């Protein structure tokens, strides 16, 4: 197996000193009959081994589309990647031929989806779906691959793995199914794991178990984890850094503690204020006025300006605010970040 | 599973009695003077008339006739046709050729419909998809009474690729042309159902997962999408198989194939009650068995369906 990883390293231009994953100025649009929806408009972020980056944002802000673009599984048409770079260890994945790109999937960058029931194929056993990875990517025999599948189910702590390997997805509970999903993503020892709302479909106690398991497996393997979520509670517990997305752009990026203590973008601040808190029981909860913009009609200047209480004239004019370096390792796309920070 | 099969078999008995009763009643109501129909233009003598009436219980009431018939059926005696031949013997002659014809037709239809349907589904909205849509519309619009003689004329008489008519012991090659004609009657719907099902399944989340696993597009389609897409198609193929076995009347007439449809058509024309009811009874049984097989296959394809 190490041999195969070694031959995989023949990926042209791979540089082990380069950042594990780096996204530069990514643009994705969906061309539909009703117009062009600009789902991602210059998203940029990076990820190091063993690190957890949370991508936070409301639904429709482009976080899942970004993930699918990284994986190269964007539905096209209607989805089109119009600009940007996705670099894995220095290799621009967008310039790779499809056959090589396919080998990157699951081998180096793997993904977990939100709803494991629909994300698993209903007519094949989980054992088949796990073993398939070893058979197709590693050329293993059916029985060897099946044994590896059992090992994997053990690793994600599914009881009685040897018998459950022959069960179908619908025979598992929600939490167990998400464990199968995790096992599938980790099968080929990827260095990057993208988890797209991995616990949203689960109830709260199971959520904690799954997040715990993910964190544990990540540490064992020193994997980089991109955690896509809209749940600030989940983020606070596990993330090292946070990228906040709004209308397809990263509006703020910062280490997790800094962002909770002192948000640097009005949108982040509004998000934090909209979390119910025990010490403010009885007070009116702050909500963000208005709705996220339609992706076919994103406001000029800063996309958040119509909902922003700090907005002034420069915010309503192009170009959009650049990523200001507001502190070491922190950026925010707001002209008035000093005001927001409370300086 | 076992209990499910037993329950289905019990249901089949009820259906069987119901269906044969209805057929028997229809045939009885339709009967004008079967003896006259039998002798044709000539007049039947009084003694012949009396003998036939006696043998077939023609002067008895409906229920008594039905009773006699069921008694015979359950003891394995299908009775004699009004022509005097044993119906079980006629069935033994007719069934093999019809079954071969129907299976050949369904294999051709399913193979073409599924592969074409999958490709049309993958390239939805493309030239191939629209082309097959046009073809299927044409096929659907073409009645078999036109298609069968036309195919015979072109491919057998003119081009001489196939024999024009067949016999009881027809080879598969001799049955190929009639099977093709029969296949066209079911291919269009099967193709459309496959195509729609593939289009739906291509949008499913598990397809995205399969692609995220780095599987080749061919494997995603033919392993992951296909099996899910086949679930509705298999039901349709099962029903079509039943239809082809019973509904090959025109095709069997045109190509002179002495199968079930051929005999049935003649029986109806000559008001041959015992013959029609005998053949239909066996058809009912075949139909029920095919349906049961389809339901069991359904469970094999879709593990979420469990019969208990």
UniProtKB/TrEMBL annotation, chain A:
InterPro entries: AAA+_ATPase, ABC_Ni/Peptide_Import, ABC_transporter-like_ATP-bd, ABC_transporter-like_CS, Oligopep_ABC_C, P-loop_NTPase
Keyword S-adenosyl-L-methionine: no
Annotated compartments: Cell membrane
NCBIfam families: oligo_HPY
The keyword Mitochondrion is assigned to this record: no
Name this polypeptide is given: Oligopeptide transport system ATP-binding protein
One biological process term in Gene Ontology: peptide transport
Membrane topology value: Peripheral membrane protein
A matching Pfam family: oligo_HPY
MF term (GO), any: ATP hydrolysis activity
Similarity section: Belongs to the ABC transporter superfamily.
Matching PANTHER family: DIPEPTIDE TRANSPORT ATP-BINDING PROTEIN DPPD, OLIGOPEPTIDE TRANSPORT ATP-BINDING PROTEIN APPD
GO CC aspect terms: plasma membrane
Keywords assigned: ATP-binding, Cell membrane, Membrane, Nucleotide-binding, Transport
Domain ABC transporter: 21-272
SMART domains noted in UniProt: AAA (SM00382)
Cited PROSITE patterns: ABC_TRANSPORTER_1, ABC_TRANSPORTER_2
Main localisation: membrane
Transmembrane segments: none
